[in-house]
Design goal:
The strands form 2 sheets. Strands 2, 4, 5, 6, 9, 10 and 11 form a 7-stranded mixed β-sheet that branches. Helix content is 0%, strand content 53%. It is an all-beta fold and 111 residues long. It is globular, with a radius of gyration of 13 Å. The chain is built from no helices and 11 strands. A hairpin with a 2-residue loop joins strand 9 and strand 10. The termini are far apart.
Length: 111
């Protein structure tokens, strides 16, 4: 049974950085199928970052140039490096694999 566990969230000041991890247990074909999302209070869940079919990456406009998705196959983990954080990045961050969600990790950015 596949499980996703997010970690690395916390409280950070505007302009700071955090690195989120999504660790996968159980068998999946490829970490490339993992995507990162977030949901702020009162808003819909938003797709932030993914790996493309040609092993590149793609990002939502709201995070492009600030967030970076990467993976470590040996650790079965996908990361989301978040730099130049803004208060509007405050949300619960989730990773997803084929409609399976982790429990989420809270990111709070203070101004």
């Amino acid at each position: 049974q596949v499980q996703l566990v997010e970690s690395g969230g916390g409280l950070v000041q505007a302009g700071g950085s955090l690195r989120l991890s999504c660790t996968v247990s159980g068998f999946i074909f490829s970490l490339n199928d993992i995507t990162w999302h977030r949901q702020a209070p009162g808003k819909q869940r938003e797709l932030l970052a993914l790996f493309t079919y040609d092993d590149s990456t793609n990002y939502a406009d709201s995070v492009k140039g600030r967030f970076t998705i990467s993976r470590d196959n040996a650790k079965n983990t996908v990361y989301l490096q978040m730099d130049s954080l803004k208060p509007e990045d405050t949300a619960v961050y989730y990773c997803n694999y084929h409609n399976l969600w982790g429990q989420g990790t809270q990111v709070t950015v203070s101004s």
